[in-house]
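Q: Predict the bound structure with calcium ion.
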Amino acid sequence: MKMTQITLTACAALLASGVALAEPKEFKKADANADGMVDAAEYANSGAEKPMAELDKDKNGSLSKKEYDALLEEECD
Ligand SMILES: [Ca+2]
Ligand SMILES: [Ca+2]
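A: Predicted complex:
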């Protein structure tokens, strides 16, 4: 059995259940002060488990929507 099939099945089940299991918030909700960037404090409240540094590609200490969205896209692919 291929790993990708297992992952997709688990993902589909998760989506079907509608339950957010430590699922990161979408960018607009994570960006609490709506300045267009998710900073470290906002990221800490986003529900994401991945280290912020892995997403902060330009290393400026905050996440743009593009950087943050990489987190969401990784959830189910
Ligand atoms: Ca912000
Ligand atoms: Ca950044």
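A: The domain at 22-76 is CATH 1.10.238 (Recoverin; domain 1).
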